[in-house]
Design goal:
The protein is α/β, with parallel strands linked by helices. It folds into three domains: 84 residues, Winged helix-like DNA-binding domain superfamily/Winged helix DNA-binding domain (Arc Repressor Mutant, subunit A, Orthogonal Bundle); 94 residues, D-Maltodextrin-Binding Protein, domain 2, CATH 3.40.190.10; 104 residues, D-Maltodextrin-Binding Protein, domain 2, CATH 3.40.190.290. The chain is 42% helix and 23% strand. The chain has eleven helices and eleven strands. The strands form three sheets. Strands 3, 4, 5, 6, 9, 10 and 11 form a seven-stranded mixed sheet that branches. Strands 1-2 form a two-stranded antiparallel ribbon. A hairpin with a 2-residue loop joins strand 1 and strand 2. The radius of gyration is 33 Å and the shape is rod-shaped. The relative contact order is 0.13. It binds a DNA duplex through helix 3.
DNA sequence: CGACGGCAATTTCAATACCC
DNA sequence: GGGTATTGAAATTGCCGTCG
């Protein structure tokens, strides 16, 4: 058996020309070094050093073996330096704030991959509303937050996107309309409306306001998207929801595209003016890599 | 999956040999 | 006699299979 200690010993003996000094340098006893060297030579089947009086010098075959040993130890040192240079970013905790839907859909694959690449970094995910994400970011209480439609200057990492769609009862007059035609925000705002917020301030009402409109007949306002679908099935009104919230079972419902299309973009955003920690930078880099890979 | 025991490899210690 | 290498025995360490 040979281990790294043996190869260090070979190099040390070559450097010092003396087993005693070599043993001291690598932290062995002299007799141990002598035995180890003898064992190596026996294992290799060649004599690496000739023992002369007061000197231990390399043999002809010993010289290239020693050179290879130096290369090997040099490569090991390079590996050490590589690991040392990235070690600070291999440990730590990332506090991430997000609203529930993104936490359940876009983030799990990203976080799974991140956990595989950086097992020493713990990601603590806080499930909050979009307003609360902004509050936590502003207070510096989280390292990164998922924000809807962030301003370009916030240096956001795009996480995903989806479109708003109208959902009407299957028997509704709008349900007869072809999907390519779509329905406008203006048309919807005049109808009996089931307003679902999903716990976000960006919802059908804020979209209408942004377009200079107003929801004229909100029959009921609920937090859960699923509750809204139930109420739409009951013919209480129509609703406007993000596409990703649509249920698998759409019986009794009809989904119509919004015209013109309105999208929401989810992005990872850092607290303002904050330099990302190495761990957060690793997460952003991974996000950029996966985004790059999927848009190629 | 952790505790445990057996076994082999390795290291240490002490004694000895060799050479200048 | 001092410095260095070698040898044999004992101690230590690490690995691996088994068991609960």
């Amino acid at each position: 058996m040979m281990n790294l200690m043996h190869w260090r010993l070979v190099v040390a003996v070559a450097d010092h020309g003396n087993i005693t000094r070599a043993a001291e340098r690598i932290g062995m006893t002299q007799s141990g070094a002598s035995q180890a060297l003898a064992l190596m030579e026996e294992t290799l089947g060649v004599q690496l050093f000739s023992r002369e009086s007061r000197q231990t010098l390399p043999t002809a075959i010993g010289l290239p073996v020693i050179e290879q040993a130096r290369l090997m130890l040099g490569a090991l040192e390079t590996i050490r330096q590589t690991v040392d240079s990235v070690r600070p970013m291999l440990r730590g905790t990332i506090r991430l704030a997000s609203f529930p839907m993104v936490l359940a859909s876009f983030l799990p694959p990203l976080l799974r991959q991140f956990n595989r690449l950086y097992p020493g970094i713990e990601v603590v995910a806080l499930e909050v509303s979009d307003d609360e994400v902004e509050t936590l970011l502003a207070a510096g209480l989280v390292d990164v937050g998922v924000v809807l439609n962030p301003a370009p200057e916030r240096n956001a990492g795009p996480l995903g996107r989806d479109a708003w769609v109208a959902v009407v009862p299957a028997g509704h007059p709008l349900a007869l309309r072809g999907t390519e035609q779509g329905v406008s925000l203006q048309e919807l705002s005049a109808l009996p409306f089931v307003l679902a917020t999903g716990g976000c301030s960006t919802n059908a009402r804020s979209l209408a306001v942004a377009a200079g409109l107003q929801l004229q007949d909100v029959r009921v306002e609920v937090r859960e998207w699923s509750s809204a679908f139930t109420l739409v099935r009951e013919n209480l009104g129509v609703t406007l929801v993000p596409e990703m919230t649509l249920p698998a079972d759409r019986q009794g419902l009809r989904v119509i595209a919004l015209a013109p299309r309105i999208e929401r973009v989810f992005s990872l955003v850092l607290p303002a003016g904050q330099t990302p920690s190495p761990a957060v930078q690793a997460l952003l880099d991974l996000l950029a890599d996966t985004a790059h890979a999927t848009t190629r």
